[in-house]
UniProtKB/TrEMBL annotation, chains A, B:
InterPro entries: EmrE-like, Nuc_sug_transpt
GO CC list: membrane
Subcellular location: Membrane
UniProt source species: Eruca vesicaria subsp. sativa (Garden rocket)
Membrane topology according to the record: Multi-pass membrane protein
Record keywords: Membrane, Transmembrane, Transmembrane helix
PANTHER family per record: NUCLEOTIDE-SUGAR TRANSMEMBRANE TRANSPORTER
Transmembrane segments: 52-72, 84-105, 207-231, 243-260, 272-294, 306-324
Region annotation (Disordered) ranges: 1-20
Domain of life, source organism: Eukaryota
Similarity remark: Belongs to the nucleotide-sugar transporter family. CMP-Sialate:CMP antiporter (TC 2.A.7.12) subfamily.
Name of the protein described by the UniProt record: CMP-sialic acid transporter 4
Pfam families membership: Nuc_sug_transp (PF04142)
Length: 352, 352
């Protein structure tokens, strides 16, 4: 309950996190040199290890995100412009991509796969995810006319279903029936874990509210799946180059957002007004999470990403019990159990 | 929410239903002639049909039970002795068993398998389920010192797990991993569907409360599984004979309960004091449900019984929306979805 309340407040205040969360899907770079160094052609065990490492990294980074929110809330600071923080996250990821690339160039030399030069044919699809997220973020301002913040948190779980459906349709990858069962359970389990005494209000959402929620879920799912398609289209292409171009467009779109949404505040109070140590930590965390998402897209897939962020949501609540004396509800236990069974079914139901 | 409230009140008042529900496990006879006539040796399709018919009958009868409770609550009558009603249910089932047997004798003649005569070796185990339920019903009076009625409703879902575990241990039947996953989900789904704003209190249950809840779940699960073992031990033995003996002991144990619990009320106000038309309907319904449970035990198993009564719980809530203008909660939708997936997994996960 307590945990959920904070997540809700988070949306009420419309702080950096909810916006940065949306950006995660289009965030891509390389964490540090050792993962980046592993070229294609390594054996299956290395692939599995790599998949495991990036999945764990994403889970841990996503959990610590929410912890940071709670922590920063306690300090009571939220005076900066969300759009500037988003812009800095993209810039940081861009810089990390370049850093990783320079190390690779020094070791391996510039090759066809790791050169920064690109073709129109390769780059033309890169602005799509950034554009989708911008559109979704704009919609987010309007949906609050129809749904309250806790209701929006509940409806956001539709993302799980939309990701699964679009993953099937666009990437043409099959999930087994057992895995689909698991995916439906993941959505139910996450929602159950977030239930509180006011959750029933979401059932009174009007038709336009439902439509917007579904459209937003589709936009978010589409952006994620599209990013995976872009990254996987050229398997031998270095992930850092792909990320670099994605982030360049991310920077550009966020620059536009600064002008549209926060021009006055930035012009009057400066670009870095209201920044604190925690803001810096959060930007760092979001940049690294973005990189982890990108790695998961390259070496695993959107389904793994959804599982990883869902489990992170539950982990955060458990950690918060120790850090902030939160109480876990019965609904949380039930939801966590359902999510755990869902994770099991996803692996047990693998198509042979 | 509304639906649940009524279920809770039901326990608060300690009316006939909660007691009769406990009796269901030891209730056994034959519904009507046509099912009873089907002898052993019929082909697989007939077996499946029979299994389907008895499962549907149990589901419908269990759903209508709760509807009857709500209906009778509205009429505001509950002045009779619960123990006398239980006794009459056992007597009615006994009478129906005999009726079915006389029809069979007339058609097929008296054989080794359908004669009423029994041996000490066959009959010695028949009092066990009745004794287990009596013990469980006595415990039920004490547990309310530790748990409130809505909390007890939640804890009763432990029956699902205990039945699964004892089914595995005592009957030595294997469930596949997927089916176990489904069984855990069934428990979570049913509990989720019953969640209300006060459900979290159950987490504060003290250790003695938990122990009693677990002991009661084990007693209930053990009685169910033991009944299945008794009935299935002699597959060719006519179910009506097996039921007859079970119900004879049921009558005996309930007669003891009348003396212990309601002697004064029955002596002063008479055996049938406070009976109404609805009471008669409920007794009829419970007798038929008991017969259906017995059929499920003979032709299917305890797992099917648990699924069937769980689905009945959800059906009741949906029907109540139309009959009594109830509102369904978000938790109910989530729980129902989880239960539906669980039903799918039980059938998809069948061991080959």
């Amino acid at each position: 309950m307590e945990y959920r309340k904070i997540k809700d407040e988070d949306d009420d205040d419309h702080d950096v996190t909810s916006d940065l969360e949306n950006l995660k899907g289009k965030s891509h770079t390389v964490t540090s040199s050792n993962i980046a160094m592993i070229g294609p052609g390594t054996n299956e065990i290395t692939n599995w290890k790599r998949k495991g490492v990036v999945t764990c990294a994403l889970t841990i980074l996503t959990s610590s995100q929410s912890i940071l929110i709670v922590w920063s809330k306690r300090a009571g600071k939220y005076e900066y412009s969300v759009t500037t923080a988003n812009f800095l996250v993209e810039t940081l990821k861009c810089a990390l991509s370049l850093l990783a690339l320079t190390r690779i160039w020094r070791k391996e030399g510039v090759t066809k796969d790791n050169r920064l030069n690109t073709t129109y044919d390769e780059v033309k699809v890169f602005p799509v995810p950034a554009a989708l997220y911008l559109f979704k973020n704009l919609l987010q301002y309007y949906i609050f006319a129809y749904v309250d913040a806790p209701g929006y948190q509940i409806l956001k779980n539709l993302n799980i279903i939309s990701t699964g459906v679009l993953y099937r349709i666009i990437l043409k990858k099959k999930l087994s029936e057992i895995q689909w069962a698991g995916f439906i359970l993941l959505c139910c389990g996450c929602t159950t874990a977030q239930l509180n005494s006011n959750s029933d209000r979401v059932l009174q959402t009007s038709l336009p509210g439902w439509i917007m929620a579904i459209v937003m879920a589709l936009l978010s799912g589409f952006a994620g799946v599209y990013t995976e398609a872009i990254i996987k289209k050229r398997p031998s292409r270095n992930i850092n180059v792909q990320n670099f171009w994605l982030y360049v467009f991310g920077m550009a779109f966020n620059a536009v957002a600064i002008v549209i949404q926060d021009f006055d505040a930035v012009a009057n109070k400066g670009f870095f007004h209201g920044y604190s140590f925690i803001t810096v930590l959060m930007i760092l965390n979001h940049a690294l999470s973005g990189i982890a998402v990108s790695m998961v897209m390259k070496y695993a897939d959107n389904i793994v990403k959804v599982y990883s962020t869902s489990v992170a949501m539950l982990l955060t609540a458990v950690v918060s019990v120790f850090l902030f004396n939160f109480h876990l509800s019965l609904a949380f236990f039930l939801g966590s159990t359902v999510v755990s069974v869902s994770v099991y079914l996803h692996s047990a139901g693998k198509l042979r």
